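Researcher: Please translate sequence to structure tokens.
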Amino acid sequence: MKKRINAPSFQFICVFLQSPIESLTILLDIFSDMKKLLFLLTLTLTLSANAQRQFEFVNSSDGESMVYAFLPEASKATGRAIVDCPGGGYGMVCMDYEGTDWAPYFNDMGIAYFVLKYRMPKGDRRIPIGDAENAIKTVRDSAAVWNINPYDVGIMGFSAGGHLASTIATHADFYARPNFQILFYPVITMEERYTHRGSKTNFLGQDYDNERIRRDYSNETQVKRHITPPAILFMSDDDRVVPPIGNGVTYYTALRQNDVSASLHLYPEAGHGWGYKPSFAYHDAMLQALSTWLSRLKAPKQESVRVACVGNSITDGSGIDLSDTYGYPATLQRLLGEGYYVRNFGRGARTMLNKGDHPYMNEFAWQDCKQFKPQVVVIKLGTNDSKTDNWQHGDEFEADMQQMIDELKALDSQPRIFLAYPIKAWKDTWTINDSIITNAIIPVIDRLAQKNQLEVIDLHTPFSAPEAEALMQRDAIHPRAEGARKMAEIISESIKSEPKIVKKSKKATKKAKTKRK
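Model: Translation complete:
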């Protein structure tokens, strides 16, 4: 039995699903309207009695967007959840074989399943985007009540719904962004040659020919390293409605090029729009592939300690193939274990200096890092600041790093902050100057660590030993995978150790020399 829950009653129903008796006491104190109370009580008992709980709730202020919820039996619940965006060319929503028909499949795996009936854009793309973001936020807000891990909420989409799902995966901020994406024969691009024109017309409206807007919502161009979540894609080779080339295959390629984990399944025939139809010739094979992928997709525990790795291309993993597996943050995750949740917020070429050529604090990654609400932060910046053109602003380095520290201290999570020395630059590639790193940047790091009672991680000394040169790539700036592992081992040891206040290093006893070239 399904019941509709209006917005004013929604949070109370959430509480009811967790503890009906305790919540009844709360409601008696709140509601004077006994008819409303009896209605809510009847609804709650109905939901609690069903092994597979089903209900629906309003998802927009006008009541037009709805979410249909299917919760698994409590004994089966894994904590995973999926928000589904059915297709329909942004002109309708196919609610059955691309929507509710999937509920038993996911519930049997212990996955909470939510089918989103989003509103049509009619030229205003913000409408369906807002509905999808709000649905994910609601699922996360209700995580405790519905036995959901807020770090294990995925999005699924079909055709135009696949475009909506991939838009949320590539454009949304941290709290509305899914942890994984499942896409079936998705519309990905808004480029005229490959797009589904009806979807493009309905979604872009008067901006149909606007080149910037078209590119912004061609999601193959919006994939971000370490930010866009992992994906699995299913398509038919003979799809003439939404051709795989230019859409799903192109999106997979963009994911792979950005080291985002992705799996591609391309079937030889069946055209477009098969969804959950058992008549699809590869129906069983598709379900098996999806089940296997989901079973191997690991999610952090809800109580895990959140660790943010802030830095430049060395943190990002530049030059290391599959950096999300072999870069230092990924290796750090394996060393720390499942009690930690490590995220890579590295961005190539970035500087601590706000007047540098690519200031880190202007980046999307910095905002994402703060929204992550880290409990541990490792800051490893300074290498690019030593470049000739950047270090002309070197007298502002200390103030700019203090700004970053202050913004982290202001977070509710009150993170434990580590300031890491840059690793040794073995050559002056790109005018990176190890003398400036040693004699100017490291002493500033030590002063700030003492001033703010923070901890320092010395990555420079271990990478200055003669044998360490073999750990570097040809540019002599970036570590190879073996070097990234060494970094991770040093950082892991620091994180696991008891907090200790920095002592003045030998480098800091030297008079800081500011070199401007």
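Researcher: Any highlights?
Model: The longest strand covers residues 305-311.
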